[in-house]
Write a structure and sequence with these properties.
The protein is of the alpha/beta class. Helices cover about 45% and strands about 15% of the residues. The chain is built from 14 helices and ten strands. The strands form two sheets. A seven-stranded mixed β-sheet has the order 6-5-4-7-8-10-9, with helices on both faces. Helix 2 packs across helix 5 (about 50-65), helix 7 (about 95-105) packs across helix 9 and helix 9 (about 130-150) packs across helix 11.
Length: about 325
């Protein structure tokens, strides 16, 4: 592995950008500027901020390519407006908010590394804290909605078939599938507080008519049988090596012969160092789940082959850090 031209200063101060974005989110700057362009005087009054300090923040966001300005009037950069405007279906603000929930945990990373213990042992975003659970589900929906654009063209469940979305979280992929083909019979399975929040977020969407939300721990609860497609998207990184084979066998048992398993997640190359986002994400998960592991795509395909899946295929999902592994029962 040969990495050249490492900018140590940029690496060491990388959190500056994250906190600038988080501050803009907390101050409602993106929402304010989505309505109209504003100068410092008007914006500082509307969000009750010190003009000099606000201008420094806005200039930094311009430098980062999130905002733009003309004659001291600031506005959302046209290339980013769809992701920063709260009215846009592609907005990423929920993901930004959840990232801010995680920021404090990273300050405790040294203790986590020393002890091997999580700094957030009760996983409040998975149910013990309802507000945080909703922010988690909204954040995952925000990310998944953008990724769905590139994932869905690769997914083609037959019309009228049964789809099981295991660990489906916000149910975003299932919802997009249902919008595209209302004849599908889809079950989203996740922890009760998570699917409750997901159902509330999507309330009123007519596509919910072909989706059933099933609350349960997918490690232990029963799965619907004779499924044509099983989606396992964005949850593999929670699973250590121990027990993964049994989980894959359980998924295979839920599929009818010839059924398709689709696994989507962050995955590492064989060196386990790259892609760097996936390597860092493993640390992020260890702050909450000490035995979490970002698997390599090679490890996963070997396990699936051993489990009896055939026609295995690995592909990158364009414009995202995610990979997809498909196999047939």
């Amino acid at each position: 592995m040969n990495i050249k031209n490492v900018d140590l200063v940029d690496l060491a101060s990388g959190y500056w950008k994250s906190f600038a974005i988080g501050t803009a989110l907390e101050l409602n700057i993106f929402s304010e500027l989505s309505e109209r362009e504003q100068d410092i005087e008007s914006l500082s009054k509307s969000i009750s901020c010190a003009p000099l300090h606000l201008e420094a923040l806005l200039n930094s966001l311009c430098g980062m390519g999130l905002l733009d300005k003309k004659k001291n009037h600031f506005f959302l950069h046209p290339d980013q407006k769809a992701y920063l405007d709260p009215r846009s279906p592609d907005n990423m603000l929920g993901a930004f908010a959840f990232n801010q929930d995680l920021a404090g945990l990273w300050m405790k990373l040294p203790g986590c590394i020393r002890s091997g213990e999580p700094v957030l042992p009760d996983n409040p975003h998975l149910g013990s804290d309802p507000d945080r659970t909703r922010r988690f589900v909204e954040g995952m929906h925000s990310r998944a909605g953008l990724m769905a654009r590139n994932l869905l063209p690769c997914l083609h469940p037959p019309g009228g078939s049964k789809v099981l979305d295991v660990g489906g979280g916000p149910g975003t992929f299932s919802l997009k599938l249902a919008e595209r083909d209302p004849s599908l019979e889809i079950t989203v399975l996740d922890l009760p507080p998570v699917v409750k929040a997901a159902a509330e977020i999507h309330a009123g969407n007519p596509a919910l008519g072909c989706i059933t939300f099933q609350g349960g721990d997918y490690h232990h609860c029963d799965y619907p049988r004779n499924q044509d497609t099983l989606l396992y998207c964005g949850a593999l990184h929670q699973e250590p090596d121990e027990g993964l084979d049994a989980l894959l066998e359980k998924m295979k048992a839920a599929l009818k012969p010839g059924g398709q398993l689709v696994v989507v997640d962050l995955m590492l190359n064989p060196d386990r160092c790259t892609p760097v986002y996936s390597a860092l994400f493993e640390l992020n998960m260890m702050l909450m789940r000490p035995h979490s592991k970002v698997h390599t795509s090679r490890e996963l395909t070997q396990r699936l082959e051993h489990c009896g899946f055939r026609d295995l295929c690995v592909s990158d999902i364009p414009h995202t850090p995610y990979r997809m592994v498909q196999g047939t029962k």
